[in-house]
Amino acid sequence: MIADRPLGTDRLSLRRFLASDGPALHGILSRPAAVEFEPYDVVTHAQADDLARERASDPRFRAVETRGGTLVGTLYLAPSGPDWWRTWELGYVFHPDHWGRGYATEACRALLTAVFADGAHRVVARCDPANVRSWALLERLGLRREAHHVRAVAFVADSDGGPVWHDAYTYAALAEEWALSGTR
Predict the structure, then answer these.
(1) What is the strand order of the sheet 163-174 is part of?
(2) CATH number of the domain that residue 100 is part of
(3) 133: domain range?
(4) Per-residue pLDDT tens digits of the chain, which is 184 residues long
(5) What Cα–Cα distance (Å) separates residue 122 from each residue in 46, 110, 112, 178?
(6) N or C: which end of the chain has fewer CB within 10 A?
(7) Does the predicted TM-score (pTM) go above 0.90?
(8) How far apart are CA 160 and CA 137, in angstroms?
């Protein structure tokens, strides 16, 4: 299974989180730009330590580390729907200081190649249309935009307690599309 084996590229290691990754995870998730489109706000040192401990035992999360040992991002890959659908959902958050270096593209490509090699039928990803970097990444990876859901998601409430709605794009790729692409 993909969660149980190491993955990597020439520049990156995609590994399971360690309980000791809290300080490095804080370096990412404490940055407003990194979490601007996430369903949570910036995290404190204590929250990052807790998250690292939780993620260390959660096979859905991968730490993305340079070969030099710098944690530059996090990946999320979780089953979506019944097992027999063989559908997975992809998510990612990268440190803004490392944007523009191709790390997110490289890491996501390695993870998608592995999950499709393991028998996935489909991988989906969602993002806010205002998050141009995110949907541009998904398109670079070769995922297709399947939907624009209008006012479909809310993570916070307004001053009156009502939801603050935003739109969401849904992207996807099928195994046969990934195979035809030569895994990019």
Answers:
(1) 7-8, 12-15, 61-66, 71-79, 87-94, 122-127, 163-174, 144-157
(2) 3.40.630.30
(3) 2-180
(4) 576 778 999 999 999 999 999 999 999 999 999 999 999 999 999 999 999 999 999 999 999 999 999 999 999 999 999 999 999 999 999 999 999 999 999 999 999 999 999 999 999 999 999 999 999 999 999 999 999 999 999 988 999 999 999 999 999 999 999 988 765 4
(5) 36, 15, 10, 9
(6) N
(7) yes
(8) 36
Closest Cα to residue 121, out of 81, 92, 91?
81
Amino acid at position 158, single letter: D
Q: Which of 77, 106, 158, 166 is nearest to 130 (CA)?
A: 166
